[in-house]
């Protein structure tokens, strides 16, 4: 069974410099991903970057992942702190 | 015709097109259900494809926009996003504009 910590690890490994908070119940997950590389990208591009970081995990291990993608400055405005 | 051509034709011929699991009346997944509710909230006149009834489309649509999940929304042939992006665009008013632009 996939744990939220696994997803955090996979995304952070595939998106160097990112910081991920993830919650979930083993099949449905919610993640907040903060990365400086999101700057200037469209929403679709940001989500594609996260999916690319997860690779085939998206097909095999993760049934559903809801995500919010933020740049560090957007995260600061929302008062979400990087770990 | 390849499956990619079939999808291109579908998203071109249907100004607002949702690829989903199940039907608008009976969505088979919470995310697809949420996508339908958002489209209804902005008064969109949309068509949908149930990917659970066609495995070729289900796999093909993932390649089509380099997007591994369902639902997927297309407006005027352009990929808009999945349910998270739809919700974000709904909340900031952008989705209403996109839908209104194809109404007239």
Notable characteristics:
heterodimer; A: 83 residues; alpha+beta; three-stranded mixed β-sheet; 3 strands; 40% helix; B: 104 residues; Glutaredoxin; four-stranded mixed β-sheet; 4 strands; 48% helix; 16% strand
Tell me the number of helical segments of chain A per DSSP (H or I, 4 or more residues long). 4
The top-level CATH class of chain B is Alpha Beta
Greatest chain-chain interface?
A: A-B, 12 and 17 residues
Question: What is the element string of chain B, with H for helices and E for strands?
Answer: HEHEHEEHH
How is the biggest beta sheet of chain B arranged? 4 strands, mixed
Radius of gyration of chain B: 13 Å
Terminal CA distance of chain A reads 25 Å
Q: State the order of secondary-structure elements of chain A, H for helix, E for strand.
A: HEEHHEH
Query: In percent, how helical is the residue content of chain B?
Result: 40-55%
* First-to-last CA distance of chain B: 31 Å
Strand % of chain B is 15-25%
- Number of E strands of chain A: 3
Strand order of the largest sheet of chain A: 1-2-3
Structural class by SSE content of chain A: alpha+beta
Number of E-state strands of chain B? 4
How are the strands ordered across the major sheet of chain B?
Answer: 2-1-3-4
General description of the model:
The complex is a heterodimer of chains A (83) and B (104). Chain A is of the alpha+beta class and 83 residues long. Helix content of chain A is 40%, strand content 24%. In chain A, strand 1 and strand 2 (28-34) form a beta hairpin. The mean pLDDT of chain A is 92. Chain B has a single domain, classed as Glutaredoxin. Chain B is built from five helices and four strands, in the order H-E-H-E-H-E-E-H-H. Chain B has helices at residues 3-13, 30-41, 55-64, 83-91, 94-101; strands spanning 16-20, 47-50, 72-75, 78-81. In chain B, strands 2-1-3-4 form a four-stranded mixed sheet. In chain B, helix 2 (30-41) links the parallel strand 1 and strand 2. In chain B, helix 1 (3-13) packs across helix 3 (55-64) and helix 2 (30-41) runs parallel beside helix 4 (83-91). The longest helix of chain B has 12 residues, at 30-41. Chains A and B meet through helix 2 and strand 3 of A and strand 4 and helix 4 of B.
């Amino acid at each position: 069974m996939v744990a939220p910590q696994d997803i955090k690890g996979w995304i952070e490994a595939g998106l160097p410099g990112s910081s991920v908070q993830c919650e979930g119940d083993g099949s449905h997950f919610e993640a907040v991903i903060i990365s400086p590389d999101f700057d200037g990208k469209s929403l679709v591009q940001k989500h594609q970057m996260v999916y690319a970081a997860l690779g085939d995990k998206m097909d095999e291990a993760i049934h559903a992942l809801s995500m919010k993608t933020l740049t560090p400055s957007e995260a600061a405005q929302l008062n979400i702190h990087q770990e | 015709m390849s499956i990619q051509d079939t999808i291109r034709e579908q998203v071109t011929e249907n100004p607002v097109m949702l690829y989903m699991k199940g039907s608008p009346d009976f969505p088979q997944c919470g995310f697809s259900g949420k996508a339908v509710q958002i489209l209804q909230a902005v008064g969109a006149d949309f068509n949908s494809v149930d990917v659970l009834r066609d495995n070729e489309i289900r796999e093909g649509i993932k390649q089509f926009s380099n997007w591994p999940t369902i639902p997927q929304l297309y407006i005027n042939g352009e990929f808009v996003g999945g349910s998270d992006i739809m919700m974000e665009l709904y909340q900031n008013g952008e989705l209403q504009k996109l839908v209104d632009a194809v109404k007239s």
